[in-house]
Design brief:
Blueprint: H1 2-20, E1 25-35, H2 36-42, H3 50-58, E2 63-67, E3 72-76, H4 84-88, E4 95-105, E5 108-118
Parallel strand pairs: 3-5
Antiparallel strand pairs: 1-2, 1-4, 2-3, 4-5
C-alpha cells in the first residue's frame, strides 16, 4: 500500500511539474522570416529567395525566425494550437518584430509568437 501511495505522489508531482514547469521568457525580438528547408540545406534567404520560400511554406515547410546578428534560428512554437506558418506567411523573407515567449529545450530555441509585425 505504501508503494502505491508513493507512486501516486510521484506521478502527481511529475504532472504538476509538467503542467506548471518553466514556461519560458517573455521577450520581443527582431528577425528575418525564413523557410527552414532552404535555409538549413543551402543557406538560401533574403529578398531573392522570396518566391521559393513562399512555395515551400505553402507545401508545408515550416517557417522560422532568424537572428541574423547571431545566426540563431528560432522555431515557432504552436502554444495556441494553430498553424504558425499562417502568422508568418505575410512576412516571408522580410524582417519582423515579434513578441512572445522564448522556450528552450534540448538545444532547440523556440518562440511562442503572440504578435508579429513588419520591423521598423
Amino acid at each position: 500500500m505504501k508503494t502505491v501511495i508513493l507512486t501516486m505522489i510521484a506521478a502527481a508531482l511529475a504532472l504538476a511539474q509538467h503542467d506548471h514547469g518553466d514556461k519560458g521568457k517573455e521577450m520581443t525580438m527582431t528577425g528575418l522570416v525564413v523557410d527552414t528547408g532552404c535555409y538549413m540545406s543551402h543557406d538560401s534567404k533574403g529578398e531573392k529567395h522570396e518566391a521559393c520560400a513562399n512555395a515551400c511554406a505553402k507545401a508545408g515547410v515550416p517557417l522560422a525566425l532568424l537572428d541574423e546578428a547571431t545566426g540563431t534560428l528560432y522555431i515557432p512554437v504552436a502554444s495556441d494550437h494553430k498553424n504558425q506558418n499562417a502568422k508568418l506567411m505575410p512576412f516571408i523573407e522580410k524582417k519582423v518584430t515579434v513578441t512572445g515567449t522564448l522556450i528552450e529545450k534540448g538545444g532547440v530555441k523556440g518562440f511562442a509568437i503572440k504578435t508579429v509585425e513588419a520591423a521598423k
